[in-house]
Amino acid sequence: MDGDITQSQEWAALGKHQEELAGRHLRELFAQDPGRAGRMTVTAGDLYLDYSKHRATEETVELLVALAERAGLRDRVEAMFGGEHINVSEDRAVLHVALRMPREAELVVDGQDVPADVHAVLDRMSAFADRVRGKEWRGATGKPIETVVNIGIGGSDLGPAMAYEALRDYADAGVTARFVSNIDPADILGNLRDLDPETTLFVVSSKTFTTLETLTNARVARSWLTGALGDDAVARHFVAVSTNAAKVAEFGIDTANMFGFWDWVGGRYSYDGAIGLSLMIAIGPGRFREMLAGFRAMDEHFRTTPFERNMPVIMGMLGIWYTDFFDAETRAVLPYSQRLHRFPAYLQQLTMESNGKSVKADGTPVTAQTGEIFWGEPGTNGQHAFYQLLHQGTRLVPADFIGFAEPHEDREGMHDQLTANLLAQTSALAFGRTAEEIAAEGTPAGIVAHKVMPGNRPTSTILAPKLTPSTLGQLVALYEHIVFVEGTVWGIDSFDQWGVELGKKMASDLAPALTSDEPPTTFPDPSTERLVRRYRELRG
Ligand code: F6P
To answer: I need a labelling partner for 310 at 20 to 30 A (CA). Which of 151, 206, 320, 359 fits?
Structure first.
C-alpha cells in the first residue's frame, strides 16, 4: 500500500479491538459462544485448521482481513503469480509457485516460458532418478548407488533434508539419503565414515555454487572419492544442482550432470525444484510429483479462496495480530510427528530469512515489529522440555500444533496416545485450571498458586489425514504463503537476505588470521582480536 500501514484506519481499528479483547479469557469466549469451535475452522485441500483457540473472535478476523486488503494483499498475490519483479532489492520475480505449475500452464516471464523450463528440468531429474533407482546408473566400479549424499547448506539443505525425513516411509528403492551442510569437519567426516565410495553418489547443491561451506565439503568428498577410486570416478559419483553452470564446470562436474533452476527461485523456496533431487531419488519421481500436486493445491487455495476462509491468510494475519498487537515475539511450531522433526528448523530459514527485515521494500524503516521468531520440536518431546514455559511462563507464545490421523505404522495404540497428547495440550493451554478448581481437588493451600494454569494461551491446530508427499507439499506451501501474507502487511521484501552477507565476508577475512604463523595484524574490533589470540594460543 502507499503510506504507512500502521497509520491506516484498519490498523487503528485493530488496536482498539485488541484493547477490548485483551482482558477476555478464552474460557469466556467459549462460554459465550461454544459454536465458535465449529465456525472458526477452515479446510484447504487435506488440511483442516481449527483456529477457535485463538484470542480472537470473528470480528477480529474481519478486521484482520480488512487490514490485509488495505495492505494490498490481493494485488500482491497476483503480482507474485504473474511473475512481476516483487523482489525489488534484487530486481527479480518470485516464482517458487511456478515450480509446481502444471505442464500446460502458460506463464512467460522476462521472455522465459516458465512452465516449459520447469518441466524440462523435472523430466531430466525424473529420468536421472529412475536410472539411479533402477540400478542403471552405476558407480565407477559398476556397483549400483546405495547412498546419495546431498552437500548443500541453508535452502540447499534444509528443504530436502526435512522432506526426506518426513517421507522416509516412501523411500522404496533401497537408496538412502544423507545431508551434509556444516563447515564443521565433524559433519562431512562423520557422514563419510561408514560409506562405501563405490556405492555413494554426491549431489552438490548450491544455487550460486560459491558457498564456502558447500564447496569445502564437496572438495573433501571429492578427495575421499578419488583417493579410493581415482580421478576418473568423479563423473559417475558427482552431480550438481545449481543456477551457475560455469562454477559447476570449474569444480569439475560435467554440466551434462547438472540440474538447473533460476534466479526467481529463492534458496529457501527451492526444494520442490531441482534442489529436491536427492529426495526424488529416494522416494521416486511419482511421489515427488504427488508432493508438487500438494503444493499446487495450497497455491490454488491461496490464490482463489476469499480471505476470510483462506488458511494462509488467516494464519498469517493471526501472526500479525500477536506480533504487532500483543507484542508476542515468537511462534512455536509443534508437529506431533517424529517424521517432521526437522520441520521447525526448515521453517526457521523459510520464515526468518524472509521476514527478518528492518526496512521496507522502498528502503525506509519499518514502523511495526516484523519477523516472528519460529522455533519448536516434535511433540511429545517438547512437552517434557519447554512446555512448562508455554503453560505457566510470563510470555505469550502462540503455537501451531500439527497432527495426522493415520500413522505409517503403529504399536500398542501409540499413535492415538500421541494425538491425545496434542489435543490435551491445546485444551490445557486454552482453558487452564483456576485456583478454585485446584483447591477443590484437595491441593494443600500452600501450593495452589504453583499449580494454577492460567490458560488463555492461543494455538492453531492443523489436522491432516496422513503424512504423505501431498500433505507435506500442502503444509510447506501453507507456511510459504503465511510468510508472504505477513511480509505484505509489513511492506518488506521477503525474498532477499542481505543480512547474511557481512558475516560471510568477515569470516573469510578472518580465516587467515586463525591459521597463519604470522602475528595477526588487522582485526574488526578489540574483542575479536583478543579472541583470535586466545584461539591461536589454545590451538598451539
Ligand atoms: O545463508 C544465505 C544463503 O544465501 C541462503 O539464502 C541460501 O539458501 C544458502 O545461503 C545457500 O546458498 P547456495 O544455495 O547458493 O549455496
So the answer is: 359
pTM: 0.97
CB 175 within 8 A of CB 133: yes
The backbone torsions φ and ψ at residue 147, rounded to the nearest 5 degrees and listed phi first, read -130, 130
337 close to ligand 1 (CB < 6 Angstrom): no
Cell triple for 32: 459465550
CB atoms within 10 A of CB 144: 18
Q: Which residues are catalytic, by number?
A: 353, 384, 504
Q: What is the largest CA-CA distance in the chain?
A: 77
Q: Count Cα atoms within 13 angstroms, Cβ side, for 228.
A: 17
User: Residue type for 315, please?
Assistant: M
Summarised one tens digit per residue, pLDDT across range 348-379 is: 999 999 999 999 999 999 999 999 999 999 99
pLDDT tens digit string along 487-529?
A: 999 999 999 999 999 998 888 888 888 887 776 677 889 999 8
Q: Is the CB of 267 under 6 A from ligand 1?
A: yes
Q: Answer yes or no: is the C-beta of 496 below 6 A from any ligand 1 atom.
A: no
Phi and psi torsions of 271, nearest 5°: -75, -10
CB 211 near ligand 1, within 6 Å: yes
Kindly state the cell numbers that stand for 36. 465458535
ipTM over 0.95: yes
Residue nearest to atom 2 of ligand 1 (CA): 500
Report which of 14, 60, 13 is spatially closest to residue 325, judged by C-alpha positions: 14
Cβ atoms of residues 254 and 245 within 8 Å? no
Pocket test for ligand 1, best of 89, 150, 151, 156 (most atoms within 8 A of CB): 156
Say how far apart CA 455 and CA 395 lie, in whole Å: 12
Nearest C-alpha neighbor of 244 from the set 262, 226, 221: 262
* Cell numbers that stand for 202 in this block: 554426491
Dihedral pair phi/psi, residue 195, rounded to 5°: -100, 155
Atom of ligand 1 nearest to the CA of 268: 8
